[in-house]
Amino acid sequence: MKILITGTAGFIGYHLANYLIKRGDEVVGLDSINDYYDVNLKYDRLKAAGIYKNDIAYNALVKSKLYSNYSFIQLQLEDKSNLEKLFDSQNFDKVCNLAAQAGVRYSLTNPDVYINSNIVGFLNILECCRHNNIKHLVYASSSSVYGLNGKSPFSTSDNVDHPISLYAASKKSNELMAHTYSHLFKLPTTGLRFFTVYGPWGRPDMALFIFTKAILEGKPIPVFNNGNMVRDFTYIKDIVEGVVRVIDNPPAGKSNWDAVHPDPSTSTAPYKVYNIGNNNPVRLLDFIEAIEHTLGKKAEKQFLPMQPGDVAATCADVQDLVDNLHYKPATKVVDGIEEFIKWHGEYYGK
Fold this sequence. Notes:
Blueprint: E1 2-6, H1 11-23, E2 26-31, H2 39-48, E3 61-63, E4 70-74, H3 80-90, E5 94-97, H4 106-109, H5 111-130, E6 136-142, H6 166-185, E7 189-194, E8 197-198, H7 207-217, E9 221-223, E10 230-231, E11 234-235, H8 236-247, E12 271-276, E13 282-283, H9 284-295, E14 301-303, H10 319-325, H11 333-348
Parallel strand pairs: 1-2, 1-5, 2-4, 5-6, 6-7, 7-12, 8-11, 9-14
Antiparallel strand pairs: 3-4, 10-13
Helix pairs in contact: 1-8, 3-5, 5-6, 7-9, 9-11
């Protein structure tokens, strides 16, 4: 297949692109390379896949020096005219949209970028898919959409009408927009609600990265909600395996869908939403203890109240992923932490 993956300078996009390249698919990666976090890490991810910083120019397709079946283009999703030209020239079979403005806390102080990237940008992706006979659009949603939901584990059949951050609201909006295009234009779409992804090449604004860096530097780590947090940490290799299975299996729509008692994760249209999580939530303090054990160094903890926009606990019900695609993430957190810290030491030379 020829697949467009947006967000390939990012964490999940980098790993997904490498998987599909090595599988033999033709991949075009796209990223705006914004400065939400250290752009050097983004350029280094690209370099690891044979795309060099000095070769990158805005709206110019660059061939990988490592893989003959990989190209990259720096482009903003909001740049509709150039995005349309890319679709027109490349004849993609499928699209995986992982490009987005990430971060719950950042959305409290920088709301405009979430509308531009996550709403306007996603609309442009939908329009390009609609007009170019794309066989399947897979896109990143988030566990954040569950918001005020108190039921655990979180199920894709649950109502998600009470987000508590603009980031979450933008991801819920993506799901609604995707369903509209699936219904009106028969565009197969699948949304993926990711649950706290971690692993090598991870984002510096995520807990594992923050904690590891602070412990190594002898600085206190912020522990929100006084440590009473639970997260369904999911290892990157498990995430990628799930995403690939989803890409390969576009939804067809359910002829027996009950419009009187509607399941929000499915439809008569070719539309589906999945959770991808470990279904094995871990207490934040246990997570920190595993980091301490691997580093051989104790953390100085700074206990803080709950941050606005955060939820106390996440846990993914992934039964439909198991039933439909015969797959369930299974990497143990202690093993995933060891792999991350090994990479961190190699990357930063410590």
